[in-house]
User: What shape does this take?
Amino acid sequence: MIVVMKIGAPEAEVSRLGAEFEELGLSPEKIVGKTKTVIGLVGDTVDLDALQLQEMSPWIEQVLRVEKPYKRVSREYRHGEASEIAVSTPAGVVLFGEGCPIVTVAGPCSVENESMIVETAHRVKAAGAKFLRGGAFKPRTSPYAFQGHGESALGLLDAARQATGLGIITEVMDTADLDIVAAAADVVQVGARNMQNFSLLKKVGAQDKPVLLKRGMSATIEEWLMAAEYILAAGNPNVILCERGIRTFDRQYARNTLDLSVIPVLRSLTHLPIMIDPSHGTGKAEYVPAMAMAAIAAGTDSLMIEVHPNPAKALSDGPQSLTPDRFDRLMQELSVIGKAVDRWEAVPALA
Amino acid sequence: MIVVMKIGAPEAEVSRLGAEFEELGLSPEKIVGKTKTVIGLVGDTVDLDALQLQEMSPWIEQVLRVEKPYKRVSREYRHGEASEIAVSTPAGVVLFGEGCPIVTVAGPCSVENESMIVETAHRVKAAGAKFLRGGAFKPRTSPYAFQGHGESALGLLDAARQATGLGIITEVMDTADLDIVAAAADVVQVGARNMQNFSLLKKVGAQDKPVLLKRGMSATIEEWLMAAEYILAAGNPNVILCERGIRTFDRQYARNTLDLSVIPVLRSLTHLPIMIDPSHGTGKAEYVPAMAMAAIAAGTDSLMIEVHPNPAKALSDGPQSLTPDRFDRLMQELSVIGKAVDRWEAVPALA
Amino acid sequence: MIVVMKIGAPEAEVSRLGAEFEELGLSPEKIVGKTKTVIGLVGDTVDLDALQLQEMSPWIEQVLRVEKPYKRVSREYRHGEASEIAVSTPAGVVLFGEGCPIVTVAGPCSVENESMIVETAHRVKAAGAKFLRGGAFKPRTSPYAFQGHGESALGLLDAARQATGLGIITEVMDTADLDIVAAAADVVQVGARNMQNFSLLKKVGAQDKPVLLKRGMSATIEEWLMAAEYILAAGNPNVILCERGIRTFDRQYARNTLDLSVIPVLRSLTHLPIMIDPSHGTGKAEYVPAMAMAAIAAGTDSLMIEVHPNPAKALSDGPQSLTPDRFDRLMQELSVIGKAVDRWEAVPALA
Amino acid sequence: MIVVMKIGAPEAEVSRLGAEFEELGLSPEKIVGKTKTVIGLVGDTVDLDALQLQEMSPWIEQVLRVEKPYKRVSREYRHGEASEIAVSTPAGVVLFGEGCPIVTVAGPCSVENESMIVETAHRVKAAGAKFLRGGAFKPRTSPYAFQGHGESALGLLDAARQATGLGIITEVMDTADLDIVAAAADVVQVGARNMQNFSLLKKVGAQDKPVLLKRGMSATIEEWLMAAEYILAAGNPNVILCERGIRTFDRQYARNTLDLSVIPVLRSLTHLPIMIDPSHGTGKAEYVPAMAMAAIAAGTDSLMIEVHPNPAKALSDGPQSLTPDRFDRLMQELSVIGKAVDRWEAVPALA
Assistant: This one.
C-alpha cells in the first residue's frame, strides 16, 4: 500500500504518520519524490481499509493498494516516478535513471592481468565509458575452465580504478566473498545464474553498495522483479536491472536471445533503472553494435559492453568482445542515436 | 555453388556457360550485381570440382561452394550483395532493401468494412506508410472467432488501394485461395502458422507477386531461411522476411518475444530484405513505439504496424493496434531515428 | 452448454428439444453416452439462462455451461465420458479410447518402394501393430530433400494394406490432396507443422475419415485442443491427439522434448483418445523403448513407432527408426507394462 | 582419459601406475568396478599419447580418451559401469543405482512443525518410502513468502529421523549453512535455482554427505552434468541427479514440463543414479501418479514425491502435494509397474 501525501505536507506530519503505521505492525518507508512525498507500506496490509487510513491525517491525498506481488520495486510504490541511482566513482557521482544520460559500462569478461585491465580501462574511459567491468570471480560451466583470479583480481581492478577514475562493477558469487567484493566495487553485480540465489540477494540487500541484478537465463520478468524486491526488502534501494539475453529454442547463431522488449515493459512496471548487455545477449561481437543501437532507441538507461585488448586470446568470452578500436567506433555510432533521443552526455568525459 | 564472373565478362560468355551448366544437369541462375555477374548453381554439386569448373572459361574469376543448407537465399549466393525488391504499387515502385529508405506497412489486423479500411488507408498514407495491411482470411486460434470476411474483403482492399495509391499486403492461408489473393495483393503474405506449410510455399513460389514470409512462432533462423529457400527454389526471388515475435517461456506482459537480433544475424546470412512487426511482436500497443524505434536503430529495412480507427472495438488484435493519431506521432518519432541512421525518405510521399 | 438428460429420457423428447434449440439459433448435437444422453449446444449461448432452459422439459436433469474456450472436445461436453473412436480396417474395427487395449501404429517415415513397405507391414503386423504408418507426402525442412513419392506412394500403401489387413495412417499436407489421401487412408494425419493450418483443419473436418492430429512443435495444450475443435466443429467427431515432442531449449541429445505429462492433462480436459509418438519425440532409436514404456504406464491409448527395414539407409528419419527385430523385442517389453496396467490385448493378432 | 586395467591386475601395479601419473601432473582416481579396475585421469591430458601410456605397464588393457566435456561423471569414466551410491540411514544402508530397487523419497515441501513432520514421516515410511524430504531453508520467489523455519526445522527433521529410521534429504541454499545442513541430512540437496551456484557446488563437493543435484529450470543436460562434475571434481563421488521439470512455453495446466526422456539419455551418458520428482515436475497432485508410473517404466532409480497431511493448508506447494492416503494408494499402484520391470523391493519395509 502507498500513502500519497498532499503537496506541502509538513515533515512532522509525515513522521507522525510513520510512527503510527509502525504501531500497526507495518514497515513504513518514506519516498521523497520531485513534488510529493509518498509513504510506502509493506507488511500484512490485507485487512487494512484504505478509507480508514485516509482519515488518519488531512494531509493524506490518497491511499492506494499495490496489486502486484512486487511492492517496493513497482512503479506505483514511487507513485509513478522513476528512481535515480547515484553511484560514487573517483571521477564523481554518476546517475542511472530514465531522465539521465545513458551510462556506458565496458571492459573485459575477466581480469586477466594488471596491464590488460589498466590498458582496457584507459581505452574505454577515453571512449566515454563511466564504469569498468571485469570479473574477479567467474561463474564457468566447467570446473576445469578458468575460474577468475579471485581476490587478487580485485586488487587489479582497484589499480585500474585509481589510474582512470572509472567506477568498478564486478560480480559476487558467494556470500562469503561479499565483504571483499563490496569493498572493491562501486556497483556489486549479481550474475544471471545467481538471480534466484536468495541468500545472496538478502546479503547484497543488507550492504550499501548499489547492486546490478542480471536477469536469469529463463527468469520471467515477474521473477526478476521479485528478485530485486528481495534486495529492496533487505534495505538496499539501489538496484539496476540488467537484461543479458534469455534462453530460447534457437542458439545456432546468437548464444542467447536479447529481449529488448523488457525496456518498455520494465519502464511501465518499475521505477528501477535499466541496463542492456548486448555482449552476453548475442554472444558474438559482430551483432553487438546493432543491438546496442537498438537498446538506446528503445530507451535503455545504460549499456554494458565487453571490450578486450585481444579478443582472440581472451581467457573467457572472447567471441563476444569488441577490440578497443571497435569500441571507439561503436561509441561514435551510439552517440548518433543517443543524441537523436536526447540521452547522450553533451561533452564526453576526457581521460 | 556460385561462379563469380570477372568484371566486364561478355553477356554471350555468361549465356554459353549457363548452357554448359544445364548440360551438366545443374540449374544455373544468373544474378546481375552492381559490379559483377554471378551464376548460381543449385543441384547435385557434391561431385563437382571447383577447379575444373573454373577452367571452363577465362572470364570466371572464382568458383565458391555455398556451405549452408540454404543456397539461393544465402548472402554468398549473391556474392555478398543485398537484394533490392521492387514492388509495384499504384503510386509507383517501392524498393525494399538494405540500401533503401525504410518502408512502413500499416493497417488493421482484419478488414472489417469498407469505411474503416478506406479511412485507415488514408490516415496511414498521410502519415507516410507505403503499404496497407489488412486481413481478408484470418488464422484464428478458435473456430468460433471471426475468421475474416474472405473474398469480399479483398474487394474492400482494392477500394482502399484505388482510393489511396497504397500497395496492399494481405495473407493467403490456403493454396485454393492463392489466385484471388495474388490478384488483389501487391505482396502476398504467408503467416507465421504457415511458415512450414510447404505446399503453400511451393505455390507462392510459383507465382509472380513478391512474398512476405513471417517467421514461425518457434522457427529457428535456419528453418526460416529454408522456408524462404522453398519459395526461391520454386522460381520467385522476391521474398521479404518478417520477424513477428517468437514464443518463449514468458508471456505475461508481452504476447511474444520480439527477436530483434535477427536483424544483424539475417544481414550476415542472407541477401533478402528484413521487416519487423512490433505489433504482433509485443501484442500490446504501448510497447510498439519503443520496439519500432529499436528496429530502425538495429537496421531493419521495413516495419509493419497495426493501426485501427478504434482499437477497443476491433474484431481482432485490438490490444496491439495503434490509433491513427498515435500512428501519426509514432511516424514523427521514427523519423528522428530514421534520419539519424540515414534511412528515412527525405520528403514523405503525398497521396 | 450441455443439457444432460435424465436416464430413460425418451428419444422423441430428445428430438423435440433438439428442434427447439435449433429454433433458438443453436447447433444441438446429440451425444449418447453409456448411461445418459447429453445434448451439446454450441453457438451464441452467452445470453441463455440455464434455469430457463432446464424448464423446457421435465426430462432434463441438468444444464451446464462449458467454461473452456474449446467446447466439443472438452470432457464436459460428453459429461465426463471418454470417446471411443472406431476405425475400420481390412482386419476389422479397431477401437481407440481410454477403456480399450493400446493400439500400436508402426512403419517407416516415408514409403520408399513397394517391397520395403510391404515387408515392413508384414513385420509390424506380426509383432502386434494394428496400423501401418508411412508418408507419401513428406514435410521436409529443405526443398532439396526427398519430398515423398506422393500419389504413387498412396498406391503402395494400399498394396501393403491388402497384403496385411493393417489399417493405413498417412499425412495430408495440402487441401488439394485431401481427396486422394482420404481415399487411401483409414486415418488421415495432420502433421505438427500444419496443426494451425486452419484451412486444412476445416477440410479434414468436413470429410469422414478419422483424423490424427499431431501437436505443433510449440503449441500449447489449449491451442492443440482448439485445433481439434476446428475439426469437430466442421462435423468430424473422430479425432485422435498425438504428442510428438515439443521444442525446448535443449536439443543436443534428444531432437525434441517428449511431453508425457500431456497424458494426464488431456485425460482431464478432453474426451478424445491420446497417441504418443516416441520416435519423433526423441529423434533417436535408442531412447524410443524407454519412452514407449513410459507412455503406457502414464496411460496413453495408442503408440506410433517408426520402423524401417534398414534405418541406416532410410530416405528420412533413419536415426529414430527401429529395425523390425528391435520392434519385435520392443513389443514384448511393452506387453509387460501393458498387461500390468491391464491395457494389453489378450491374444496378439496373427497375420 | 581412462586407463582400463586387465582383469587380475595386481593392486601394487595399480598403485605404482597411480604414482607415475601423479608425477606427470595428473590426478589419477582409482575406480574399482565389478570385474575390472579403471584409473581415471583428469588434468592436462591433451598432449598425452594413449599408445605411450599403454606401454607403461603390461597390465594395462586399454587407454581411452573421454571426449565429452564432463569427465568424472561420464559413463566412460567408469568404463560403462553404473555407480551404486550407498547412503547410511538409521534403518540401514540404502542403495541408489541402476541395478537396485527403486528408492522412494517422500515428505512435505517444508517442515512446518514437529507433529506434521513426524506424522508424515510415519505415514510415508509405512507406505514404503526410505527417505523423508522436508525443507528447512526454502527458496521462495517472493521475499514476503514463508522462507522455511531454518535451523530449528533441522532439529524437527532429526526428531522424525529418530522416530522412524528414515533417511533425511533437505536443501542447502547458502554455503554458510552447509555445515549444519550436512550434519542433519543423510543426503544434502542442491536446488534447481542453485544448480549453477558454483561456490555451493564446490563446497558440497568438499564434504562427505551424498548430494542430490536438481536440474536447473532451463539447464541443458550438458550443463547439468557439468554441475555434477564440479561436485565430483571437488572430491565427492556421490551425486544423484534429480529431474524436476523444465521451463517451456506452456505453463497453463502443468507448472513445469517433466522431461522423462532424461532417463534414457542420462543412462547412456553418465554412471550416476537418477531421481524423478513428478511433484515439482507437474505442480499438480492429480498429475503426479501418472508421471510417477511413467518414470518407473522409463527406468528411473528413484522417485521424490511431495506428501502433506493437509495439502490445502500447506505453507508451500500445497497444490502439488498428495495426502498420505493418496500416497498409500500410489505406492500400491507403483508396485505393479515396479514389479513388472523387476525394480521393486520384494518385501516393503515395516515401520
Residues 85-340 of chain B form a domain with the TIM Barrel fold (CATH 3.20.20.70). Chain B has two domains: 2-65, 85-340.
